[in-house]
Amino acid sequence: MDDLPPGIRERLRALPAGLRGHIERVVVEARRLAAVHRMDAEQAERAAWLHDLLRATPGDELLALTERYGYQANEVQRRLPMLLHGPLAAELLRREYGERDPDVLDAVRWHTSGDPAMDGLPLLLFVADKVEPEKLRLHPGQDEVRELANRDLRAAALRYLELLEARLAAGLPPRGRGRQAAGALDPHAEATRAALEAAVRQRGRRT
Length: 207
Ligand SMILES: [Fe+2]
Ligand SMILES: [Fe+2]
Hints:
This protein has helices spanning 6-14, 17-36, 41-50, 59-69, 75-79, 85-96, 102-109, 120-130, 133-138, 143-149, 153-169, 187-206. It is mainly α. It binds fe (ii) ion (2 copies). One fe (ii) ion binds next to helix 2.
């Protein structure tokens, strides 16, 4: 955390304690997964510290930020502004804190819905965010995602999205917020799920 810009460290310190705890646990998971998959642990840690900078920002403020940054929110994001906290944090980091690492920016941008083309660091952060111990305590079924993540990040991300989809379809969203109204994956997450499924199936055929 020491090499983050002072303004970012202040923002992190000002976050609610629960969110701050989540971020710290994602940092641990991101470093662990980077070691398992022989990726850059420092870069993974940096993305983890930054990913939820706007997670506690109210929906109306997120929508105001879309105006300020000229960000085109889609219809689902307008209905569920929480879905904007990743894309807008990436904009904030790039425009106001000079973050230039494209992998870090993409990882922050896509950590909630995933992205059909994600690989490397964005894929690692997407999974690390979902398998920290407190999330597994809330959703015990996700233990399987953590186990898969030790072998195959893509298969882990796919399994997470399948479990989320089933939870949404059953009307059991995480803590009754956000996607509850949708009852299904948002279109970007749905496209991500389809791409991951195709990639995992393709690889299965080769091996
Ligand atoms: Fe998030
Ligand atoms: Fe998170």
